[in-house]
Specification:
It is globular, with a radius of gyration of 19 Å. Helices cover 39% and strands 17% of the residues. It contains 7 helices and 8 strands. The chain starts with 9 loop residues before the first strand and ends with a helix.
Length: 211
């Protein structure tokens, strides 16, 4: 997404130096992908080794002063998720954002993630429904390919904020795959106001919590 897949991670006195997306160092990244010899190598590690690396990514990376530290995890409630929460706990994480698609199978997975957050004491900032309808680029008609409303209904049932829906947009997918700035290139896309609205709600919610 950021065209930094060929970057290397270096050491400094404070630990690993993260990979910076731009010269202004406005966004810094750390991924196990930067540590692999080949991009197609599989990471075949047992739990203790993976959990140790998660702790290193939090504590042994020279992050510097950050506005936000965002940890992107795959769906689930695995041992790695527990290790991530425990590694972040000393830094008082603001909370979790859960993403679902409208289908019942996906909503069921996120329902279990809500339970996980409750048991680990992690506040849920809100739920986002992704792939929520496809807006035709020619006639602007919206078709709910994967049904609709599962995320919002789950948020109501769980008593957590519903942050919004993001429609399917081929332009968004193409921009991400090619590492281009979607917001600058497609400001009239139906996904643009949805993403902006969700981001603003997250900023408002975290600013209220930090204050």
């Amino acid at each position: 997404m950021f065209r930094v897949q060929d970057s290397d991670v270096h050491q400094c006195d404070s630990g690993w130096v993260p990979v910076f997306v731009d010269q202004d160092k406005s966004i810094s990244l750390m991924s196990i992908g930067f540590l692999l010899e080949k991009p197609d190598d599989a990471v075949v590690w047992r739990g203790p080794k993976k959990n140790a690396l998660i702790k290193q990514f939090v504590a042994d990376v020279a992050w510097g002063d950050l506005d936000f530290l965002i940890v992107d995890t795959p769906p689930g409630t695995s041992d790695e998720h527990i290790s991530t929460v425990e590694a972040l706990r000393p830094y008082k994480p603001l909370g979790a954002i859960l993403v679902t698609t409208p289908q019942a199978v996906s909503v069921g997975d996120v329902r279990r993630e809500l339970t996980f957050c409750k048991k680990t004491g992690l506040r849920v900032l809100g739920i986002v429904e992704n792939m929520s309808g496809f807006v035709c680029p020619h006639c602007s008609e919206c078709t709910n390919i994967f049904s609709k409303g599962g995320g919002e209904e789950l948020a109501k049932h769980a008593g957590v904020p519903f942050l919004g829906c993001v429609p399917l947009d081929p332009q968004l997918s193409q921009s991400l795959e090619e590492g281009r700035d979607f917001i600058q290139e497609f400001p009239k896309s139906s996904a643009f106001p949805a993403l902006a609205h969700i981001a603003q709600q997250i900023l408002d919610g975290t600013s209220q919590q930090s204050s």
